[in-house]
Amino acid sequence: MQVSRQAARLGAAAAVCACALLTACSSISHVVADSWPRALGGLPEGVPPRVQNPPAYMSVTEPPPTRDTKKLTPEERAKAEAEMAASRSQNATQSQEIKSESSSRLPPIR
Predict the structure, then answer these.
(1) Tag placement on the chain: N or C end, fewer CB within 10 Å?
(2) CB neighbour burial string for 21-42, b if at least 16 within 10 angstroms, e if fewer
(3) Is 5 part of a structural domain of the chain?
(4) What would the pLDDT profile of 67-96 be if each residue is shown by its tens digit?
(5) Are residues 38 and 76 in the same domain?
(6) What's the start-to-end Cα distance of the chain, in Å?
(7) How far, in Å, CA of 95 to CA of 103, rounded?
(8) Which one-letter DSSP state was computed for residue 75?
(9) Is residue 54 in a domain?
């Protein structure tokens, strides 16, 4: 009985040490993972290399940069609305055609 408790404690201590060692290696884990073969879980062929200096995250406290877009002129807005209306009517026409073609093949919806 005493031997099994001692073995359990030794195993638990070994597991804690293994976890500590693995977390210490996390800063270089990408170097190892990038060089592993595909069969062992590495990256597939043709993947572009990692960026040497990844971009910094935007600060949470700073507001996003202002957009450099301008408001639409009344002519541009009318043109965009006309394009959307034409697209909407085209979609409605296409859906009616599909419904009329498929009505003979599908059972009625109740």
Answers:
(1) C
(2) eeeeeeeeeeeeeeeeeeeeee
(3) yes
(4) 888 888 999 999 999 999 999 999 999 988
(5) no
(6) 71
(7) 12
(8) H
(9) no
Give the mean model confidence (pLDDT) for residues 32-47.
75
Q: Torsion-angle region of residue 22: left (phi > 0), alpha (psi -120 to 50) or beta?
A: alpha
Distance CA 61, CA 65 (A): 12
Please state the domain count of the chain. 2
Cβ-contact 45, 38 below 8 angstroms: yes
**Domain-located, residue 3:** yes
Residue 83 belongs to what domain range? 72-102
Task: Note the pTM of the prediction, 2 decimals.
Answer: 0.35
Q: Is residue 11 part of a domain?
A: yes
Cβ atoms of 34 and 50 within 8 Å: the answer is yes
Task: State residue 25's pLDDT score.
Answer: 65
In Å, the largest CA–CA distance within the chain is 88
Residue 103: pLDDT above 70?
A: no
